Amino acid sequence: MPPQEKEMPDNNDASRWDRVRRRLRAEVGEDVYSSWFARMEMEVCGAESVRLSVPTRFLRNWIQSHYAERLLTLWKSESPAVKKIDLVVRSSVSRAGFSNNTMNTPAKPSVVLRGNGQGRLPAQPSGPLSMRSDKSGSSPLDPRLTFSTFLVGRSNALAHAAARQVVEAEAGTAARFNPLYIYASVGLGKTHLLQAIAWAGETNGRRVSYLTAEKFMYGFVAALKNQSAIAFKEALRGIDVLVIDDLQFLQGKTVQQEFCHTLNALIDAGRQVVVAADRAPPELETLEERVRSRLAGGLVVEIGPLEEALRLSILEARIAAIKAEHPDFDVPQSVVNHVAHQVTQNGRDLDGAVTRLLAHNQLSNRPVTVELADEVIRDLVRPSDPRRIRVEDILRIVAKHYGVTRSDLLSSRRTANVVRPRQIAMYLAKTLTLRSLPEIGRRFGGRDHTTVLHAVRKIDANVAADKALAEEVEVLKRLLLEA
């Protein structure tokens, strides 16, 4: 081993550590070993304990959670007296305290690894363990969220193909889909795809920064307070791929302006930008128009509701992963099919269903049956939601029905042939969507919420008194539901 600025183990200890590492490498394979264990070092080897160190807290936590038992077993095979392994983050080890083979202030172990269960290796990224530390303050990545663990179905095939195109593009070539904008409801895989892009990009030697909108806001505000805004901007503009998650939470005029400047700078320089949110760009009412326009100018892809075949695949993958730790967890195929048919909302509900089945099976010793499944997933079985109607759909259909343009509805024109359709459109937006009055006002040309309220009340009263108008509104509702 190369010389280290720490208390060096004697030759026998070094030989034991070398054998442990060789056996670990042989067991997990070169790719996994290089990703997760190559930077692990031995600090001190005592009679009954061994202290190992790693460079990051993320790495320490992962090894502690998934490989405690195996590490201890490997050490016991070399030194049967070893009872525990202390795993510390190297930054917490006072290197300045090493002098003449003594430690002035021993570092307190951050985590103690005691053999407490069978270590299990989850799906691994083949690249680095975490994003590089930079002034942009990248958000942490989940090592399970890679392309290899993303299940593809009809509802997400286009989003998956676009994401793969982003990471497989050769370095230095112009981005084909820029920005790539992915939107979907919760639990349908947006974050999984974005983190997969970040993992794969780093593996391919691209400089990637993965940020949630909240992290972007926090980083920019902190940079302003610390008078390091220029460094923050330079860090973002110097990357190859910027990945922003949960854009719907981006708030604040100054923050949005900086995001817009960053977006423009990266796209104009041919750098890739990938964004995810819970709705399409035109529906992000809290964002400035120029930001929405720039986002809509790229490839906008929706991940739809999970079809039953994909739900079935997700359930089978989750159950297979659990069986690796609980071999006696037996779920008949009839139960898997039943749950896939009943739980239709999102992947998180499917995870919850499997967790509940496991808990009842393990804690109550009850066999997994269709009857048990019905009992534990009762609150996860929801009636099918009606089609989600968007303000954009209302504007389009109302404009076509009354022979006016979308621009007319958003304008300040006060002619009778425009005012009535505009008021009806506002009424439909209030009754058929979850948008608030201020949000609807913003979508209708930046009007005040009191204007929307007046329109809603007027149409509501007229519908009650005018049968012809009531039938007309019902026709528009059917058109929207069938569109």
Task: Name the descriptors.
GMP Synthetase, Chain A, domain 3, alpha/beta, four-stranded mixed sheet, 483 residues, globular, Rossmann fold, 4 domains, five-stranded parallel sheet, disordered N terminus, Helicase, Ruva Protein, domain 3
Model description:
With 483 residues, the chain is α/β, with parallel strands linked by helices. The protein folds into four domains: 11-113, 2-Layer Sandwich (GMP Synthetase, Chain A, domain 3); 147-302, P-loop containing nucleotide triphosphate hydrolases (Rossmann fold); 308-380, Helicase, Ruva Protein, domain 3, CATH 1.10.8; 391-482, Chromosomal Replication Initiator Protein Dnaa, Chain: A (Orthogonal Bundle), CATH 1.10.1750. It has 20 helices and eleven strands. Strands 8-9-10-7-11 form a five-stranded parallel sheet, with helices on both faces. It has a four-stranded mixed sheet with strand order 1-2-3-6. α5 (157-168) runs parallel beside α6, α7 runs antiparallel to α8 (229-237) and α18 (437-443) crosses α19. The longest helix is centred in the first third of the chain and has 18 residues, at 11-28.
